[in-house]
Write a structure and sequence with these properties.
With 196 residues, the chain is mainly beta. It is built from 2 helices and 10 strands; from the N terminus they run αβββββαβββββ. The chain is globular.
């Protein structure tokens, strides 16, 4: 029943009234990348700092516009030496390209609680098309809003995933010891209208 109500809210502007601009909650948003390490293990890293907005009004999926970035220096592999390598020019080159950005060009609904966003992904100064599959977990008043002012208002929670080859964006150091194929997962809670 919950998923049916959320699906209706996504596709019907008459169901609920929401603000059009949504901002990621920095305390509940992270970008996780996963790769194969020399065929021995799957390794992960997180980017903790996310910027940008989602322009979205229920009932107008096609008119949604995502404009997001991650701060390269916020990467966290759990190993200081690897963090330093990741922000060096061998990998993401944070000094010259401090952000990885994604700007959507099309958004479509692919299921009751599923969307697909295609757009321009820019990594290390190279821009290519990428497509994210999105699952919407919840939309509406946050249950913590009754306890904390920070959580008042309308919220949107979702996970976006994609798989790409890092060499397409010029990040090819140590392939194939570290796999070319990278999995990306974005987990976020977003608040309508932000905190201003």
């Amino acid at each position: 029943m919950k998923s049916l109500l959320l699906a209706a809210a996504l596709s019907s502007s008459a169901t609920l009234a929401f603000a059009e601009t949504w901002y990621p909650d920095p305390t509940h948003t992270d970008v996780v990348i996963t790769w194969d390490h020399a065929g021995f293990s799957m390794q992960t890293a997180k980017f903790h700092e996310v910027t940008g907005t989602l322009e979205f009004e229920p009932g107008d999926i096609a008119g949604a516009q995502a404009n997001f970035g991650v701060v390269v220096e916020s990467i966290d592999t759990g190993v200081d030496a690897l963090d330093a390598a990741m922000i060096s020019n061998e990998f993401f080159d944070a000094a010259n390209h401090p952000e990885i950005t994604f700007v959507s060009t099309t958004v479509e609904q692919t299921g009751d609680m599923a969307l697909k966003a295609t757009g321009d992904l820019t990594i290390k100064g190279v821009t290519k098309a990428a497509t994210f599959d999105i699952v919407v977990h919840n939309m509406g008043e946050h249950p913590l809003g009754g306890f904390f002012d920070y959580n008042k208002g309308e919220w949107l929670g979702m996970t976006a995933t994609t798989t790409l080859n890092r060499s397409d964006w010029g990040v090819d150091y140590l392939i194939p010891v570290g796999s070319d194929e990278i999995n990306i997962q974005i987990n976020t809670e977003m608040r309508a209208g932000g905190w201003n």
